[in-house]
Design brief:
The structure is a single chain. By secondary structure, this protein is mainly alpha-helical. The chain has one domain. It has 3 helices and no strands. Helix 2 packs antiparallel against helix 3.
Length: 76
């Protein structure tokens, strides 16, 4: 997820400035629709794995750490 977030921050967001005001709304709409296919599945896997870890955690993982990770993910 960190690599994906960096990709969006470093590549995609700076390119927004290169789109003219008249085209920005259309560009942003298409970007949002297309980028969702890239970021959606990893985010879903991250959320599900955090939930599973919080409820069915291995003995080596402290309960507080698993719950904190899940709650932080919800906040984000």
């Amino acid at each position: 997820m960190v690599g994906l977030i960096w990709l969006v921050q470093v590549v995609h967001y700076p390119l927004f400035g290169m789109v003219g005001p008249g085209d920005f709304k259309s560009y942003h709409h298409k970007h949002t629709r297309l980028i969702s296919w890239v970021v959606g599945p990893p985010m879903l896997v991250e959320g599900l794995s955090a939930a599973v870890l919080a409820w069915y955690r291995p003995a080596a993982v402290p309960k507080s750490a698993a719950l904190a990770g899940f709650l932080l993910l919800l906040v984000l």
